[in-house]
């Protein structure tokens, strides 16, 4: 049988030794932490803007922290979470028109010659007609459209699901990029949207409102309906579509609005 191992015991610390030890530890911790805080502050201050002009001058590290939160909410809500829908009778008969950037300022626009321009990964541009888009399965939605200015209205839209569109036109490789950029034909209004909202099952390329062709003011011939976002992201009169891993420029984000603008 083994004999129990005899440990050598250290002499217990005196009260004074304990105090000295503690104050040394806490002082070092204080020094390290405050040094770190100062260095962190300097680092943040000197850090470059994420992309000049895109997020109203938020420093990149701060923006990254915000992006992390954004990512959490995205993963949490997108796709799994559906926006509430309503019976069609509740839809506004004369939905309000809000803002006409890229529409009223484009005198050269000729709807009969319109084609959606899609920028492909190989740098070529694909041109898609409204007839090709209307030939795809039609999806309708009646939901509460919300503008950041503080109004909302139940509206009835129809068009092709953006995800169906991407599959039909073999744009899956493009859609693997993190963002989609959309702009009006004259480039005056433009938005960037992250992949999850693009692929959200309720996101439409809409060509009808209240069962009729969309009017010019509401974005004819084709507009975006992205119910998980505020109105600002719902670009009217889409001219160009592009894909990227960097955030595309965004009209209202440049004015200081939240880039994500989710509900
Ligand atoms: N081309 C373009 N799209 C746009 C806008 C705009 O000024 N120009 N305004 C946005 C805003 S702020 C809102 S609230 C909605 C309003 O859409 P509606 O006029 O169909 O109600 O369109 C969005 N899409
Ligand atoms: Mo808006």
From TrEMBL:
<dbReference type="InterPro" id="IPR000572">
    <property type="entry name" value="OxRdtase_Mopterin-bd_dom"/>
</dbReference>
<protein>
    <submittedName>
        <fullName>Molybdopterin-binding oxidoreductase</fullName>
    </submittedName>
</protein>
<dbReference type="InterPro" id="IPR036374">
    <property type="entry name" value="OxRdtase_Mopterin-bd_sf"/>
</dbReference>
<feature type="domain" description="Oxidoreductase molybdopterin-binding">
    <location>
        <begin position="109"/>
        <end position="252"/>
    </location>
</feature>
<dbReference type="Pfam" id="PF00174">
    <property type="entry name" value="Oxidored_molyb"/>
</dbReference>
């Amino acid at each position: 049988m083994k004999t129990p191992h005899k440990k050598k015991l250290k002499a217990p610390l005196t009260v004074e030794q304990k105090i000295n030890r503690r104050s040394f530890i806490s002082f070092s911790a204080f020094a390290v932490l405050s040094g770190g805080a100062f260095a962190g502050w300097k680092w943040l201050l000197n850090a470059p803007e994420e992309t000049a002009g895109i997020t109203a001058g938020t420093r990149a590290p701060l923006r990254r922290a915000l992006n992390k939160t954004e990512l959490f909410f995205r993963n949490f809500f997108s796709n799994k979470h559906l926006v509430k829908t309503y019976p069609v009778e509740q839809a506004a008969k004369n939905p309000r028109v809000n803002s006409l950037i890229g529409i009223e300022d484009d005198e050269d626009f000729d709807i009969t010659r319109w084609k959606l321009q899609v920028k492909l990964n190989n740098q070529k541009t694909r041109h898609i007609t409204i007839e090709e888009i209307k030939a795809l399965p039609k999806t309708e939605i009646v939901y509460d459209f919300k503008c950041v200015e503080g109004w909302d209205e139940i509206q009835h839209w129809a068009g092709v699901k953006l995800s169906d569109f991407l599959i039909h036109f073999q744009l899956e490789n493009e859609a693997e990029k993190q963002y989609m950029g959309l702009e009006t034909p004259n480039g005056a209004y433009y938005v960037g949207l992250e992949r999850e909202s693009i692929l959200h099952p309720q996101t439409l390329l809409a060509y009808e409102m209240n069962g009729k062709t969309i009017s010019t003011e509401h974005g004819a011939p084709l507009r975006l309906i992205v119910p998980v976002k505020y109105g600002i992201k719902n670009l009217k009169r889409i001219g160009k579509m592009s894909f990227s891993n960097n955030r595309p420029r965004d009209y209202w984000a440049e004015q200081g609005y939240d880039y994500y603008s989710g509900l």
